[in-house]
Fold this sequence. Notes:
By secondary structure, this protein is mostly beta strands. The protein has helices at 30-35, 40-49; strands at residues 53-57, 61-67, 76-81, 85-92, 111-118, 129-133, 136-142. The strands form two sheets. The protein has a four-stranded antiparallel beta sheet, with no helix packed on it. Strands 3-4-5 form a three-stranded antiparallel beta sheet. The termini are far apart. The model is unreliable at 4-11, 19-24 and 41-46 (pLDDT under 50).
Amino acid sequence: xxxxxxxxxxxxxxxxxxxxxxxxxxxxxxxxxxxxxxxxxxxxxxxxxxxxxxxxxxxxxxxxxxxxxxxxxxxxxxxxxxxxxxxxxxxxxxxxxxxxxxxxxxxxxxxxxxxxxxxxxxxxxxxxxxxxxxxxxxxxxxxxxxxxxxxxxxxxxx
Length: 158
């Protein structure tokens, strides 16, 4: 039985159970209702524009990976700007509609994306490599080898 009346959208929640997964969220629905007035084409474009990119660091390099299904390598740009900024950008154009065709659903996103990452001081920006395979862009930025401090043994007299 609910301890909270249906003031909060009819949710059934036990406020005395701290582990309840169905807790009331005051922000719930705020973004979905805000997007209700946005055209579907704009929402689809924003999905592509917010391309997510993974960045991991290995002992040898910084590795960036982005899933870009349906894009050719010619449609993607990888650049290093001044100030050690890695920029990954691209564009997927919308399919042209023929007058004699009837579209039932358009779920694939289109539009431009641009992501920038400030590279750390240990990045070799002159040796950046990028490859695209099966819709996955991999950018590898080698790291400068860390110089281990030279340890000099001092002889103790006496």
